[in-house]
């Protein structure tokens, strides 16, 4: 539970961002991890509530609250406070396949449901989760966990986003022969092709893929089921098929002049679209010699609101300062 | 809200916008314009792509156009086919995707083996 009086003694202190003038000069993550001692102090604020809403429960309507994967948050807060990072990492991985991802990009419903919200600020749960996961990787505690016995069953998974990857890892560890079909050249789905580097860098996902391959998962890249791989073939060749291809039908804006935006997109973007991996950066290209101000406000205005709009704006600013990225990966 | 794009020679130059009321309808007299050389639509996703795989498998869809499956069996209208993540629930959070992937793995393991020790 952390320190009994921790929440009375310590104020919430979360990770800070690198100053703007620094962060716009590079494409990398700009959230600065807390020092170890401060992370442990923050974990000390956890009250180990009688009903820990953070780690998820179901309310009377059946709607889940708190953590959707039911991370045992008060338990690992306590372990971190006591400096037992190894056991904290083991506990965290028992409910979450990719805590290094959620520690970076989850909107943290756990913190929204923390009891300390009643008359104080919530525990920095997401920051603590990220610290545990990053430490686990740095210390070499994250190793492949191949099954001791194989079942002889074959499972096809379509899509390598967070749902497909989590499903694949669990089924591989249960001894099944798991094959993941991914239409793009790299695994990760939106983790790779949707989230900009300034929120989560690509190596974060890549090292999990290495782990999963060592656990027996086979990845088939450039394999677009229903396009260049017949879906019927999966039914014939596998004992079960899991569809985790995401919701990719984008909402359109059917207003007068829409075709103009479209034609410009084809004109400006097409020749850069060879590698989908680089697409996201080229999208945000700002004309050379133009300042930060105008364009990025226009982008944001056109993009309405939301996470994607914020990502676009962030990358537009970085692009304005750095120019077009050349040969990135 | 943006009500119109305008430009010349197939290239967009301007967005025509208006403030909206509580029902997200444009309010008269609040029109304004924004110059833009490039417009990026970042308005989210409505459901999985139906063309291709989903049509080929003739899977049943729910009212929102997602692949129909419950959160216990994760089984689609084809008993051998399961669905998880945004494909089943529509655009959502990474942490829900991880949950659905894990729970679907539990369901698939049970389907294949008759029993499972995977958590859900």
Class computed from helices, strands and strand pairing of chain A? alpha/beta
Computed over alpha carbons, the radius of gyration of chain A is 22 Å
Strand order of the largest sheet of chain A: 7-6-5-8
Question: For the report, how would you describe the main beta sheet of chain B?
Answer: 3 strands, antiparallel
Instruction: State the end-to-end CA separation of chain A.
Output: 44 Å
* Strand arrangement, major sheet of chain B: 1-2-3
Main sheet record of chain A: 4 strands, parallel
Fraction of residues of chain A in helices? Answer: 40-55%
Biggest interface pair, residues each?
A-B, 85 and 75 residues
How many domains would you count in the coordinates of chain A? 3
Oligomer: heterodimer
**Tertiary shape of chain B:** elongated
What is the fold-level CATH name, i.e. the topology of the largest domain in chain A?
Answer: Fumarate Reductase Iron-sulfur Protein, Chain B, domain 2
Provide tags for this entry.
heterodimer; A: 329 residues; alpha/beta; Fumarate Reductase Iron-sulfur Protein, Chain B, domain 2; FAD/NAD(P)-binding domain; 4-stranded parallel β-sheet; 9 strands; globular; disordered C terminus; B: 120 residues; alpha+beta; 2 domains; 3 helices; 23% helix
Structure description:
The complex is a heterodimer of chains A (329) and B (120). With 329 residues, chain A is an alpha/beta fold. Chain A has 16 helices and nine strands. Chain A has a four-stranded parallel β-sheet with strand order 7-6-5-8, sandwiched between helices. Chain A has a two-stranded antiparallel ribbon with strand order 1-2. Residues 263-305 and 324-329 of chain A have low confidence and may be disordered. Chain B has two domains: 2-35, no CATH class; 53-113, no CATH class. In chain B, strands 1-2-3 form a three-stranded antiparallel β-sheet, with no helix packed on it. At the A-B interface, α6, α9, α12, β8 and β9 of A face β1, β2, β4, α1 and β5 of B. β8 (240-243) of chain A pairs parallel with β5 (81-83) of chain B, so a sheet runs across the interface.
């Amino acid at each position: 539970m952390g320190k009994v009086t921790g929440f009375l003694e310590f104020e919430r202190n979360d990770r800070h961002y690198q100053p703007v003038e620094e962060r716009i000069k590079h494409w990398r993550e700009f959230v600065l991890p807390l020092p170890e001692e401060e992370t442990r102090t923050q974990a000390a604020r956890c009250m180990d509530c009688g009903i820990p809403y953070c780690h998820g429960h179901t309310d009377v309507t059946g709607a889940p609250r708190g953590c959707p994967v039911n991370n045992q948050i008060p338990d690992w807060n306590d372990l971190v406070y006591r400096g037992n990072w190894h056991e904290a990492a083991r506990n965290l991985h028992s409910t979450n396949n990719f805590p290094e991802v959620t520690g970076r990009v989850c909107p943290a419903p756990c913190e929204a449901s923390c009891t300390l919200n009643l008359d104080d600020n919530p525990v920095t749960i997401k920051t603590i989760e990220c610290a545990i996961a990053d430490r686990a990787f740095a210390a070499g505690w994250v190793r492949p966990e191949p099954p001791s016995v194989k079942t002889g069953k074959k499972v096809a998974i379509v899509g390598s986003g967070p749902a497909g990857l989590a499903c694949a890892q669990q089924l591989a560890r249960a001894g099944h022969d798991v094959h993941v079909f991914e239409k793009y050249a790299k695994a990760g789905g939106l983790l790779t092709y949707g989230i900009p580097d300034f929120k989560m860098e690509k190596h974060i996902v890549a090292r999990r893929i290495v782990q999963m391959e060592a656990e027996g998962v086979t990845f088939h890249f450039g394999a677009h089921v229903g396009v260049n791989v017949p879906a019927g073939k999966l039914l014939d060749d596998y004992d079960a098929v899991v569809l985790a291809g995401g919701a990719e039908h984008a909402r359109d804006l059917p207003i007068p002049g829409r075709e103009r935006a479209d034609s410009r997109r084809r004109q400006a973007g097409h020749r850069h679209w060879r590698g989908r991996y680089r697409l996201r950066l080229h999208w945000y290209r700002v004309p050379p010699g133009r300042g930060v101000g105008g364009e990025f406000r226009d982008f944001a205005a056109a993009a309405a609101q939301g996470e994607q709009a914020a990502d676009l704006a962030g990358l537009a600013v970085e692009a304005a300062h750095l120019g077009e990225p050349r040969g990135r990966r | 809200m943006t009500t119109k794009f305008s430009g010349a020679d197939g290239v967009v130059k301007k967005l025509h916008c208006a403030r909206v009321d509580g029902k997200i309808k444009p309010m008269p007299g609040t029109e304004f314009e924004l110059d833009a050389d490039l417009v990026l639509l970042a308005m989210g996703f409505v459901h999985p792509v139906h063309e291709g795989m989903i049509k080929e498998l003739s899977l049943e869809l729910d009212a929102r156009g997602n692949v129909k499956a419950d959160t216990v069996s994760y089984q689609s209208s084809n008993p051998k086919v399961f669905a998880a993540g945004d494909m089943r629930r529509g655009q959502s959070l990474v942490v829900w995707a991880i949950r659905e992937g894990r729970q679907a793995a539990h369901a698939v393991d049970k389907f294949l083996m008759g029993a499972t020790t995977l958590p859900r």
